[in-house]
């Protein structure tokens, strides 16, 4: 009864805020509430998608990320703040705890404002390096906005991002118009380390570089990063699928960048429209678990053999059993769970492993168990000829998709003494069986012969001796 | 000395039936003494299973009782040797568990509800009573004096050499195996003496039971053929021997092959080849016997030599070829270590690492057998005097038993029965001589001399022809008898003392004395196992050194990586490597094996010597055997060749996981710089070790058991060292100037 009630409450809650898969409490950190006017469209979009925004000053005493050990917010959005530190309520350790508790963070920076210490050390933990002086400015002398930064060349006009690998779904640039551009004004570029949890969403063009505007030299002698090594918007997804996105320029989320009329390319051409609004929606949507979220609905494995009981998820199998494994996956896209379709150039694989995989098999779509909201993938295979404690493992980790790491442990036992073929079935055993038969009958025959053949001579001898 | 009461006593035992009744009563009393002297541990502590292996036997018995025989037979145990599992049903000697199971069900059928644990705890004492009875029977076959048998039963009942493995709670294979050993020998002697197929078949039956119970059955498998061989060499081949041996061998081998763990070993391995060889040899002899009766003796001589030489040569050649071609497995390592005590140390560290596989120190013989050890040669000498077939057996058994007992501590167990039998013969011979109160009359002696005169003349030696000199003085007799009585009393005292002090500790629970003399129980093991049972997930895998595997499985009911059934040396070496390597090396190993908790035993606080740091070198050696490039024993010794744990320990030592786990946080118990390891008497460095990949989960009251939880991978993808540094509040240093070429990210 109690569980039923809680399910009911949960369903109601889901209906009210059917938006993010991980809650709608969004904390927005900014210096001044007045600032939010310039982001009105972006914040308005967020609100219209169902987020409850609470605005806080980093120095606010009432600010607490955790209450009684539980997260008070589901997501945090950092706008650039002038304060050097973020105070005791937003220390890097607290932010790491927030990520570990599956909270999501969207960080925006600006070259005009020094990034707070707290965020810098948090990003350093994630292997994201910011320019040393914290006021590195990304400039590009080829792709700049001629109307607003004709001299400084620090307002970049970029094509919408494309997919970074062929097997990755294009979440951020898909559907952009041919001549739509992304405006990236006065931003900070970051240099990403080799961590596999990091993925750049938007990279600087080959001609861009980062420099310190305070150094007015002719030559940039110590270059922080240049070209595609400079990540303008980058995504981090922790092992528990908590997400952190770093947007190098907060200004690109401002209302003025959402307007197309105000920019023109370096060669003077007017731009049809900016992609910023859609891009902002997608970046925030991804960060706050509205897209790219995978869910494992159920996993089932059973013995697929003639005459066997089809018990689901048994704890133990025998070697060389035929086993069917099925996993059901859904993907969340903005407001609904949809069946997850594996990209054509990718494969969803099942590992059957003990210490190391004995099988690594591609899972294929199983239409009979799929539905409108879930896709089932299955594979039928023969267990290896090795007893032990095995795991059915599905380890599907792709950029921008939440991690699927499922492990189901089963024991695989040896053949029991009565599961071997009987000796008379094996043709190789016939000579031996015949041998046994011959020996037995021979011995019996000998005994009979011995017993029924009276020793005639012996009788006489005994009589004589008597 | 008053002779009347003695004579009165003797006259009571004159009648045949009275004697029989007395014998039964005495045997029952001996069995009672044997059982009650083994109950020290139950009285002092509680009804608890002891040590290590018994915990597995206990667990297996519970499985048998709960799931029935066939499930036990096909038992695949997925809670040991994770993730390999163990085909337990096919790799154990089921005799012990089945015996307990049968007793359990029999008692239930009699509507006596008994906890299976109590059956297991009391099985060994119960069988020790039977062993005493078997020793009585065996000795009675050796000598006509009935007192020898009773003495042997008494010795067998309380000899510490046997008690060491059969106190209450010591639920090990040896608990029933020694009874089976002695009883099989008795049946063998019986079969041999009578040339009876029935006794031979019974002997084979009990041999089969023995095979089902203990790996030491190979002792019988080698001793019986050896006895037969010696008899043949002495020219004592007879049809009795032929019948007894062939019956035993044919039926016994078939019986032994029914045990899955033994399977085809009796026809495949070198240990079993002597039995097969003697079996063939006996067939040849029987054939020759037949031929000799058929052809003239002159021709027979040449025929014999050609035939015997030819067959022997062919047989040997065949054996060598079969061994080298791999049809017959060569001697196993454990057997090599029986011949060359240094063998195991060099080649198989895992065998050498077990303390009971060490060569015996000579005081152990006195400790375990006391006066029996010097009575033993006397008994053997008496056997030589008579030297019938059965006495040859005692001589052969004595020789081999002594050798093996000298090589391996635990084989003292197989020596004990023959020592008891021989010593009982010696004591009874002494008592028979000195206890008869009546003095021999000179005339009688003369008469006896006269009747034996012919024999004496035959022997030809003048000295033997002299009249037998009797013991006339009562004074001398009583001196001798009272001395023996004192010895026997001291023997009983010694046995009781040894049993109570040395062999009755469960070793799961440690007892110590407080300054005021009261007993203090150190119960860290059970405390820790109980913690594991109640605070960890049911399938949490525990990594520990293999010594504790059975106990964790039995008491904490958690899966383990390795345990005392050391069937997979590589897996043990893997654990050894994880323990002896740096954290960065150990962590991937632990991840791969899905380890959740690591358990170490640390005796530094209490001065407990059986801890893991003291066993550590064995871990290193075993790991080095498999990964000589990655683990090196030398690196754990200082340049001066010392094994140290203090500030001057080597870097490898200090960085090893075992060292870190043992001394983690140990400093906090002491004032700064005062931390002392009381076991090794070492002053520890001021700064204790740092653990990144593990976190302390539990430490028992006296710090004997320490349990660590293996951390998951870092959520943010950092390595554990930097994650731990971040948690401690160290900010990452900014990389301002990079040396060398830039590392570019490639996506």
TrEMBL record, chain A:
Keyword Isomerase listed? The answer is no
Residues covered by the OST48 N-terminal domain: 25-287
Compartments (UniProt record): Endoplasmic reticulum membrane; Membrane
Q: InterPro entries attached here?
A: DDOST_48_kDa_subunit (IPR005013), OST48_MD (IPR055459), OST48_N (IPR055457)
Keywords from the named record: Endoplasmic reticulum, Membrane, Signal, Transmembrane, Transmembrane helix
A cellular component term, taken from the record's GO annotations: oligosaccharyltransferase complex
Report the pathway entry. Protein modification; protein glycosylation
What is the annotated signal peptide range for this record?
1-18
Main location per UniProt? endoplasmic reticulum
Is the keyword Endoplasmic reticulum in the record? yes
Q: Where is the OST48 middle domain?
A: 310-453
Function recorded in the entry: Subunit of the oligosaccharyl transferase (OST) complex that catalyzes the initial transfer of a defined glycan (Glc(3)Man(9)GlcNAc(2) in eukaryotes) from the lipid carrier dolichol-pyrophosphate to an asparagine residue within an Asn-X-Ser/Thr consensus motif in nascent polypeptide chains, the first step in protein N-glycosylation. N-glycosylation occurs cotranslationally and the complex associates with the Sec61 complex at the channel-forming translocon complex that mediates protein translocation across the endoplasmic reticulum (ER).
Q: How does it assemble?
A: Component of the oligosaccharyltransferase (OST) complex.
**Name of the protein in question:** Dolichyl-diphosphooligosaccharide--protein glycosyltransferase subunit WBP1
UniProtKB/TrEMBL annotation, chain B:
The coenzyme or cofactor needed here is: Mn(2+); Mg(2+)
Q: What Gene Ontology terms describe what this protein does at the molecular function level?
A: dolichyl-diphosphooligosaccharide-protein glycotransferase activity; metal ion binding
Query: Segment Disordered: which positions?
Result: 727-747
Start and end residues of each STT3/PglB/AglB core domain: 541-591
Q: Which GO terms describe its biological process?
A: post-translational protein modification; protein N-linked glycosylation via asparagine
Question: What reaction gets catalysed by this protein?
Answer: a di-trans,poly-cis-dolichyl diphosphooligosaccharide + L-asparaginyl-[protein] = N(4)-(oligosaccharide-(1->4)-N-acetyl-beta-D-glucosaminyl-(1->4)-N-acetyl-beta-D-glucosaminyl)-L-asparaginyl-[protein] + a di-trans,poly-cis-dolichyl diphosphate + H(+)
Q: What is the protein's membrane topology class? A: Multi-pass membrane protein
Query: Which spans does this entry mark as compositional bias, Basic residues?
Result: 729-747
Q: What does this protein do?
A: Catalytic subunit of the oligosaccharyl transferase (OST) complex that catalyzes the initial transfer of a defined glycan (Glc(3)Man(9)GlcNAc(2) in eukaryotes) from the lipid carrier dolichol-pyrophosphate to an asparagine residue within an Asn-X-Ser/Thr consensus motif in nascent polypeptide chains, the first step in protein N-glycosylation. N-glycosylation occurs cotranslationally and the complex associates with the Sec61 complex at the channel-forming translocon complex that mediates protein translocation across the endoplasmic reticulum (ER).
Name assigned to this protein: Dolichyl-diphosphooligosaccharide--protein glycosyltransferase subunit STT3
């Amino acid at each position: 009864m109690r569980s039923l009630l809680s399910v009911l409450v949960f369903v109601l809650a889901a209906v009210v805020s059917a938006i993010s898969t991980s809650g709608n409490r969004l904390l927005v950190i900014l210096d001044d509430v007045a600032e939010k006017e310039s982001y009105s469209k972006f914040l308005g979009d967020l609100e219209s998608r169902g987020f409850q925004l609470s605005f806080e000053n980093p120095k606010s005493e009432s600010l607490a990320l955790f209450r009684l050990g539980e997260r008070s917010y589901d997501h945090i959005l950092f706008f650039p703040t002038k304060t050097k530190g973020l105070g005791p309520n937003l220390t890097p350790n607290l932010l790491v705890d927030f990520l570990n508790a599956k909270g999501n963070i969207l960080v925006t920076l600006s070259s005009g404002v020094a990034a707070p210490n707290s965020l810098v050390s948090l990003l350093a933990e994630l292997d994201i390096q910011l320019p040393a002086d914290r006021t590195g400015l990304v400039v590009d002398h080829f792709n700049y906005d001629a109307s607003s930064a004709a001299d400084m060349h620090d307002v970049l006009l970029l094509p919408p991002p494309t997919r970074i690998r062929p097997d990755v779904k294009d979440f951020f640039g898909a559907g952009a118009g041919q001549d739509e551009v992304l405006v990236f004004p006065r931003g900070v570029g970051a240099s990403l380390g080799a961590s596999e949890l990091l993925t750049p969403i938007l990279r600087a063009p080959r001609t861009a570089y980062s420099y310190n505007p305070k150094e007015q030299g002719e030559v940039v002698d110590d270059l922080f990063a240049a070209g595609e090594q400079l990540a303008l918007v980058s995504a981090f997804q922790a092992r528990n699928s908590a997400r952190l996105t770093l947007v190098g320029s907060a200004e690109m989320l401002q209302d003025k960048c959402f307007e197309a009329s105000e920019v023109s390319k370096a060669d003077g051409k007017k731009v049809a429209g900016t992609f910023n609004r859609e891009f902002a929606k997608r970046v925030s949507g991804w960060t706050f678990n509205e897209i790219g979220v995978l869910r494992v609905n159920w996993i089932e494995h059973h013995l697929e053999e003639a005459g066997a009981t089809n018990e689901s998820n048994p704890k133990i199998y025998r070697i060389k059993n035929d086993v069917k494994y099925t996993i059901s996956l859904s993907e969340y896209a903005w407001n609904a769970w949809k069946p997850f379709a594996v990209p054509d150039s990718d494969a969803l694989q099942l590992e059957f492993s003990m210490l190391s995989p004995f099988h690594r098999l591609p899972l294929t779509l199983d239409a009979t168990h799929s539905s409108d909201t879930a896709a089932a993938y299955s594979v039928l295979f023969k267990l290896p000829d090795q007893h032990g404690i095995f795991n059915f493992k599905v380890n599907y980790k792709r950029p921008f998709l939440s991690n699927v790491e499922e492990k189901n442990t089963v024991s695989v036992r040896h053949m029991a003494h009565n599961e071997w073929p009987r000796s008379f079935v094996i043709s190789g055993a016939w000579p031996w069986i015949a041998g046994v038969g011959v020996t037995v009958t021979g011995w019996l025959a000998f005994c009979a012969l011995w017993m029924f053949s009276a020793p005639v001579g012996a009788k006489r001898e005994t009589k004589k001796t008597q | 000395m008053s002779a009347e009461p003695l004579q009165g006593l003797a006259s009571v035992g004159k009648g045949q039936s009275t004697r029989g009744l007395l014998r039964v009563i005495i045997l029952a009393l001996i069995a009672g003494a044997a059982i009650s002297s083994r109950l020290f541990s139950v009285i002092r502590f509680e009804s608890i299973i002891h040590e290590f292996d018994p915990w597995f036997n206990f667990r297996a018995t519970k499985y048998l009782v709960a799931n029935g025989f066939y499930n036990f037979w096909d038992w695949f145990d997925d809670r040991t040797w994770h993730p390999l599992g163990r085909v337990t049903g096919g790799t154990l000697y089921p005799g012990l568990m089945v015996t307990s199971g049968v007793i359990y069900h029999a008692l239930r059928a009699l509507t006596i509800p008994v906890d299976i644990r109590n059956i297991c705890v009391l099985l060994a004492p119960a069988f020790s009573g039977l062993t005493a009875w078997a020793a009585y029977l065996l000795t009675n076959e050796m000598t006509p004096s009935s007192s020898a048998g009773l003495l042997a039963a008494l010795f067998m009942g309380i000899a510490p050499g046997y008690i060491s493995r059969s106190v209450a709670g010591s639920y090990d294979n040896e608990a029933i195996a020694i009874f089976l050993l002695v009883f099989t020998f008795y049946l063998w002697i019986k079969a041999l003496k009578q040339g009876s197929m029935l006794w031979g078949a019974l002997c084979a039956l009990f041999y089969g039971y023995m095979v089902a119970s203990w790996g030491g059955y190979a002792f019988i498998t080698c001793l019986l053929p050896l006895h037969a061989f010696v008899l043949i060499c002495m020219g004592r081949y007879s049809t009795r021997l032929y019948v007894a041996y062939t019956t035993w061998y044919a039926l016994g081998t078939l019986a032994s092959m029914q045990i899955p763990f033994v399977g085809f070993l009796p026809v495949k391995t070198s240990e079993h080849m002597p039995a097969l060889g003697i079996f063939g040899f006996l067939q040849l002899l029987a054939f020759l016997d037949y031929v000799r009766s058929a052809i003239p003796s002159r021709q027979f001589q040449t025929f014999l030599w050609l035939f015997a030489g030819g067959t022997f040569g062919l047989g040997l050649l065949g054996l060598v070829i079969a061994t080298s071609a791999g049809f017959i497995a060569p001697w196993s390592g454990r057997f090599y270590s029986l011949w060359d005590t240094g063998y195991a140390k060099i080649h198989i560290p895992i065998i050498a690492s077990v303390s009971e596989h060490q060569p015996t120190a000579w005081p152990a013989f006195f400790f375990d057998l006391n006066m029996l050890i010097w009575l033993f040669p006397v008994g053997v000498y008496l056997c030589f005097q008579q030297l019938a077939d059965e006495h040859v057996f005692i001589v052969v058994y004595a020789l081999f038993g002594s050798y093996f007992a000298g090589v391996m501590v635990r084989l003292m167990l197989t020596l004990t029965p023959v020592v008891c039998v021989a010593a009982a013969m010696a004591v009874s011979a002494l008592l028979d001589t000195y206890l008869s109160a009546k003095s021999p009359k000179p005339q009688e002696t003369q008469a006896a001399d006269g009747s034996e005169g012919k024999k004496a003349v035959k022997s030809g030696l003048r000295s033997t022809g002299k009249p037998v000199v009797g013991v006339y003085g009562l004074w001398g007799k009583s001196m001798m008898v009272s001395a023996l009585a004192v010895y026997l009393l001291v023997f009983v005292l010694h046995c009781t003392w040894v049993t109570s002090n040395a062999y009755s500790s469960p070793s799961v629970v440690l007892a110590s004395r407080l300054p005021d003399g009261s007993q203090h129980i150190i119960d860290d093991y059970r405390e820790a196992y109980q913690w594991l049972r109640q605070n960890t997930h049911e399938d949490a895998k525990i990594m520990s050194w293999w010594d504790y595997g059975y106990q964790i499985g039995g008491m904490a009911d958690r899966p383990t990586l390795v345990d005392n059934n050391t069937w997979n040396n590589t897996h043990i070496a893997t654990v050894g490597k994880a323990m002896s390597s740096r954290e960065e090396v150990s962590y991937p190993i632990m991840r791969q094996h899905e380890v959740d908790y690591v358990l170490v035993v640390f005796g530094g606080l209490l001065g407990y010597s059986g801890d893991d740091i003291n066993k550590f070198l064995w871990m290193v050696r075993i790991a080095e055997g498999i990964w000589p490039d990655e683990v090196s024993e030398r690196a754990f010794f200082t340049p001066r060749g010392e094994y140290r744990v203090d500030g001057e320990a080597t870097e490898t030592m200090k960085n090893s996981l075992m060292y870190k786990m043992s001394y983690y946080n140990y400093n906090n118990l002491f004032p700064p710089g005062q931390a002392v390891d009381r076991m090794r008497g070492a002053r520890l460095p001021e700064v204790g070790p740092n653990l990144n990949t593990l976190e302390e989960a539990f430490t028992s009251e006296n710090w004997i058991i320490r349990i660590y939880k293996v951390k998951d991978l870092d959520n943010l993808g950092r390595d554990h060292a930097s994650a731990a540094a971040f948690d401690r509040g160290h900010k990452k240093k900014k990389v301002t100037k990079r040396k060398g070429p830039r590392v570019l990210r490639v996506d």
